[in-house]
Amino acid sequence: MLDADDVRRAVPMTAAVEAVREAFRELAAGRFEVPQRLSFAGSTTLVMTACHTPSSTTVVKTLNLAPGRTPMILGTLVWNTAAGQVVADAVEVTALRTGAVSGVATDLLAPPSASRLALLGTGAQAADQVRAVAAVRPLRHVSVFGRSSVRAQGLADRLSAEFPEVTVRLARHASAAVADVDVVCCATSSDTPLFGVDDLPERVHVNAIGSYLPSMRELPPELLATAGCVVVDQVGAVLEEAGEVIHAVDAGLLDPGKLIELGTALRRPPVVGGRTVFKSVGLAVQDWAIARLLGEATGMRP
After folding, report:
1. Which CATH superfamily is domain 101-282 in?
2. What is the pTM (predicted TM-score) of this model?
3. Low pLDDT (below 70) residues in the chain
4. For the packed helices 126-136 and 90-109, what is the interaxial angle rounded to 10 degrees?
């Protein structure tokens, strides 16, 4: 059983970004079987699985979510190979792979010189969003906004210690945080949009990884309607689970046919400009990518 510290020692963020990038290319090439995520007990228990058909390796992850509990999320990940199994702390893997996919999307869609980041959210996923952007862009400034100023300050202090070359400041409002940045990372469970489309610069890339239920919405529908490019992890998944996408489609503001899957975009990079969006609800291929690295670190290869 690999605990959180074991996972972090085995998989640095730079390796996680590259592994997740390759997994999405493999997904687009049809080399994964990925069943729809199972959800039980009012979406408080989630089960995700994927099979990489060329290697016949599978990953199975279970998560239990209990708002108000500390920690809020508990879970286990199992990577299965012909040689045996690797079992790991699923919470750490989830944070790592969720950050990594934002890194992949940022590397694809943000300007090469992007150095200013707005981080909206202070929960378990937040710090890895910063780590992932820092892995692919010359990050110099981070604005942090959260509902709790105490938690926001604590996160800002941790980020300042980890990235001494980066200036980290608190923003009093989400709209202020996003006003003058190159990249925005949304990592909240909000049920209303965090900012208005007019709060954003004309050229900005936005990652949204927090919402995973139809009732949740981090992004304004006008952003999805006017963005030059909207990339998603998987079209079917976001149309079932991503509240902001569902709302924009139902309102007639977004044509689902214009959604581009990340794996496709990696194989055929889109021409980007203006505002770009990446919306993720999380796929088991990301867990598989991290689990493969954990397997290699423990000497267990397919």
Report:
1. NAD(P)-binding Rossmann-like Domain (3.40.50.720)
2. 0.95
3. none
4. 40
